[in-house]
């Protein structure tokens, strides 16, 4: 483990720190200091800023898997559900910086040279044991390029930085800075007021699979904004039809779980606010 990354306070710090070091190096050489580190797409306020005026929705959301997707294992060691750490496991508990997921499986993030990587074994919660994961190529798949888009808020595919870990209020409501200042409902996306197709697109941006339209290097709808048609962000997007090969089967495979929400969608919408699923 790299000692300088071991002191990183948060997930953004990885990118921020390397930029700080670059800026310090540049300053030492007498070159102009680098611009401040960009942090995700513009216009976002972050979920904590919604709490004051929407306390009940905040409370519901904070209990969902969406809010708890990524957890800081250093601040909160209880987040790690795996318990069989032995010399056969190719990493130690202390190598884990963040946990990903909490109900089906749990994967583990480490930091190497300021970049996040998913460690090569994951914990199956139902089996109560380890499963192999990208054993041979885990170092070639940085988390930022392969996963951020669906597990964070406001990921900027150009600077590869983000606004907030996990799935926050603005993942479904779009950038909220203007609304926080104005309190005007017109300044924020309310999915209920969108045509159904566009409202569904918000969930589909993460609960389907496909490739981006930025440069085809992201396996997610990079840059997607709630309220926009998903076809603008996903190449060759099509919705699985009931009974088709891509439809939900209930076999709990990775692909299937990503589609599961389509199956349950009607139920979620009929019983509760989507902020609380
Ligand atoms: C300073 C107070 C305040 C803050 C902070 C705030 N809101 Fe609001 N929000 C309001 C008010 C007031 C309304 C209008 C309520 C009404 O019309 O019943 C509203 C309405 C909404 C609506 C419904 C819009 C519509 O068209 O019906 C959404 C969605 C929303 N807020 C989301 C958010 C999100 C997401 C955040 C954080 C990024 C946030 N709000 C932060 C005050 C706030
Ligand atoms: C296209 C969007 C998308 C991308 C890209 C994506 N995920 Fe996910 N991920 C999801 C969705 C949606 C779920 C929820 C469905 C489920 O429970 O499996 C999920 C669930 C998970 C879970 C299980 C959570 C649990 O509680 O059981 C883990 C772990 C996970 N993802 C890790 C990753 C990693 C690592 C990557 C990158 C290699 C990645 N995901 C890329 C959308 C995505
Ligand atoms: C920014 C990406 C993103 C958006 C947008 C999103 N989700 Fe999710 N969703 C995820 C991820 C990632 C998980 C996995 C969380 C975990 O297991 O820790 C998840 C988990 C879920 C789960 C729990 C699934 C399970 O395995 O039990 C439900 C239900 C769900 N989402 C419904 C929705 C609905 C409905 C919408 C739209 C209103 C939506 N999601 C929008 C990414 C997203
Ligand atoms: C997974 C997507 C998702 C997340 C995350 C989410 N919402 Fe929502 N929200 C929706 C949808 C969809 C609606 C439309 C009503 C419905 O279908 O539940 C909605 C409706 C609302 C409304 C207007 C309706 C009402 O009940 O007043 C407000 C305000 C709101 N959300 C605020 C928030 C805040 C604040 C957060 C974070 C604490 C949040 N939402 C997180 C999807 C989401």
Quick structural summary:
The chain is α+β, with helices and mostly antiparallel strands.
Structural summary, described in words:
The chain has 10 helices and 10 strands. By secondary structure, the chain is α+β, with helices and mostly antiparallel strands. The chain folds into 2 domains: 164 residues, no CATH class; 89 residues, no CATH class. The strands form 3 sheets. Strands 1, 2, 3, 4, 5 and 6 form a 6-stranded antiparallel beta sheet that branches. Strands 7-8 form a two-stranded antiparallel sheet. It has a two-stranded antiparallel sheet with strand order 9-10. Strand 2 and strand 3 form a beta hairpin. The chain is globular, with a radius of gyration of 20 Å. It starts with a helix and ends in a 6-residue tail after the last helix. The relative contact order is 0.12. The N terminus is likely disordered. It binds heme C (HEC) (4 copies). One heme C binds next to helix 4, helix 6, helix 7, helix 9 and helix 10.
